[in-house]
Amino acid sequence: MTLVQMQQRPANAPVAPRTVDDVMEAAGPQVCDDMTVEVALAVMASARADHLLVCDEDGLCTGLVTQSQLAAIRDSAAYTDQVRLRAVLGDRGPFASPATTMAEADHAMRYRRLDALPVVDEQGSALGVLALAR
């Protein structure tokens, strides 16, 4: 048994809000935005991942795709085997900063109905992923 020493905190001491940095997962698989949907699905399957971070030619995160998103695109009538991830992503984002509070991230994810949110640094490089608990 390990003993844990508890410290008393004054009742009026402010509680720092939890941030995304406290709970984000490792970035996981990252792919380039010129990859086709079919290849991205194969990468996802081999990595046993539910999502992929997508980066541009400069290595900056442009978004995140999920297996269900890509499967829906592949099953659509307009799908061809030449569809690239950059065509699927559309606009960049949304993203979270490591300093984003959990309340802000929770609100953004619920509002946009997201299961996962990329976490990026000031330059736009992927640091991790904030994912809903399963």
Summarize the structure.
This protein is of the alpha+beta class. It has five helices and six strands; from the N terminus they run αββαββαααββ. Mean pLDDT is 84; it is low at 1-7.
Task: Please give the order of strands in the largest beta sheet.
Answer: 1-6-5
**DSSP helix count?**
5
The strand count comes to 6
The biggest beta sheet reads:
3 strands, antiparallel
The helix content, as a percent range, equals 25-40%
**Overall body shape:** elongated
What is the alpha-carbon Rg in Å? Answer: 18 Å
Query: How far is the first residue's CA from the last residue's CA?
Result: 30 Å
What order do the SSEs take from the amino end to the carboxyl end, as H and E? HEEHEEHHHEE
Kindly name the structural category: alpha+beta
Bin the strand percentage.
Answer: 15-25%
**Residue runs with pLDDT of under 50 for 5 or more positions:** 1-7
Overall mean pLDDT: 84
What does this structure look like?
- The chain is α+β, with helices and mostly antiparallel strands.
- Helix content is 29%, strand content 20%.
- It has five helices and six strands; from the N terminus they run H-E-E-H-E-E-H-H-H-E-E.
- The strands form two sheets. It has a three-stranded antiparallel sheet.
- A hairpin with a 5-residue loop joins strand 5 and strand 6.
- Helix 2 packs antiparallel against helix 3.
- The longest helix is centred in the N-terminal third of the chain and has 11 residues.
- The N terminus is likely disordered.
